[in-house]
Amino acid sequence: MTDWLALSYSLTVICLVAIAAYAIIYTKLMTKKSEVVKHVLETSEGFITARKTQGMWRIAWSFYAGSVGSWVITTTASYASYAGYLGVVFYAFATGLPIIMQAYFGDV
Is the whole model's pTM more than 0.85, yes or no? Predict the structure, then answer.
């Protein structure tokens, strides 16, 4: 049992480091290529708002990933087994709400 635990933790750390390295390298390459990204990163106002630099679908998927990720991290995997139908309904609501909000407020 201990061998599997050590293996799973090792693989987790390797994957996290690889994803972090990819994100850093990709960001550096995109910053060199795009003048819009350079402008956004130069000022605090540009960094906070990122005005007109992201498309509607990227923002929608970001909201979706944020809602699903926060829900998965803060609850157990067996939530439906002790929360019942109400738990499943609220899980679906929390997952779908950002997409519904994006549909209504879209290009504001």
Answer: no
CA atoms in the 13 A half-sphere facing the CB of 64: 11
List C-alpha distances in Å: 106 to 21, 44, 57, 69.
32, 24, 9, 22
Selection from 58, 57, 61 nearest residue 95 by Cα? 61
Query: What six digits make up the tokens of 32?
Result: 């060199």
Contact 70, 97 (CB under 8 A): no
The number of beta carbons lying within 10 Å of the beta carbon of residue 98 is 19
List pLDDT tens digits, range 51-103.
777 777 878 888 888 877 766 666 655 667 777 778 878 877 877 887 788 78
SS (H, E, C) 4-50: HHHHHHHHHHHHHHHHHHHHHHHHHHHHHHCHHHHHHHHCHHHHHHC
